[in-house]
Amino acid sequence: MNPKIERLIKQFAKLPRVGNRAAVRIVLSLLQTRDGRIENLAATLLDTAENIVPCKICGTLTDKTAGVCEFCRDASRANGQICVVRDMGDVWTLEKSSVFHGRYHIIGGLLSGASGVMPEDLNIETLAARVRDENISEIIFALPNTVEGKTTQHYIMSVVGAGGVRFSELASGVPLGGDLDYIDDGTLSLAFGGRREL
After folding, report:
1. For residues 104 and 83, is the Cβ–Cβ distance under 8 A?
2. Average pLDDT for the chain
3. In the CATH scheme, what is the code of domain 3-52?
4. pTM: predicted TM-score of the whole model, two decimal places
5. How far is the CA of 3 from the CAs of 8, 9, 10, 30, 33, in angstroms?
6. Over 60: is that where the pLDDT of 155 sits?
7. Whose CA is closest to 151, among 113, 197, 94, 101?
8. Residue 34 DSSP symbol
9. How far apart are CA 198 and CA 193, in angstroms?
10. Class of domain 54-197
């Protein structure tokens, strides 16, 4: 195979949840249909990379000119709740299901000694300041139901401290080792509604 095509396939295969076979299909589809899709895709990728940045408050992706995302700007979401999630994909999953109407805090991963992910690698320290500054009464953990997820959750609770803040986590319906991306809206709604205090 042509080395340039192989290099492009390898780049697509590096994306989360895109294996080598899917990468081959994507690249071949782009190359075999010369209708401007490649140029449009390249221009859109460059524009997005240059103009989308993490929100300086919560970490969700937003327009560079705004600096603060739509969730942090929306006064109706200042309801005293912050939902702690691993990444932007979890925010989109929760927004699509319409089960949460507060604000988010993206930590950017999970603590893992095996992978070398330490507290300083994650967006955790700013959460304590947000709790104080935004008058937060409840932190809801929507982290994966894994050892790493639970370890991260306990670490965050120790950093934030009790100080009148209620901690809760999603309830039934989220299987052990489960990821939000794979849970249907109905199950997610039940898990949110039945969340339990920690």
Report:
1. yes
2. 86
3. 1.10.8.420
4. 0.77
5. 9, 10, 10, 16, 20
6. yes
7. 113
8. -
9. 15
10. alpha beta
Choose between 76 and 35: higher pLDDT: 76
Report, as an integer, the average pLDDT of 39-54. Answer: 93
pLDDT of residue 177 exceeding 70: no
Nearest to 160 by CA among 91, 105, 95, 118: 105
Cα(89)–Cα(60) distance, integer angstroms:
10
Lookup result for tokens 């490649």 = 38
What confidence category does residue 178 fall into, taking pLDDT thresholds of 50, 70 and 90?
A: low
In the chain, list all ranges with CATH 3.40.1360.10: 54-197
Strand partners, 106: 85
Query: Tokens for 17?
Result: 């949840």
Q: Where in the chain is the domain with CATH 1.10.8.420?
A: 3-52
Q: Specify the DSSP element, H or E, that contains 129.
A: helix 125-133
Amino acid identity of 25? Answer: R
Cα-Cα end-to-end distance for the chain: 55
Which token pair is 18?
């895109």
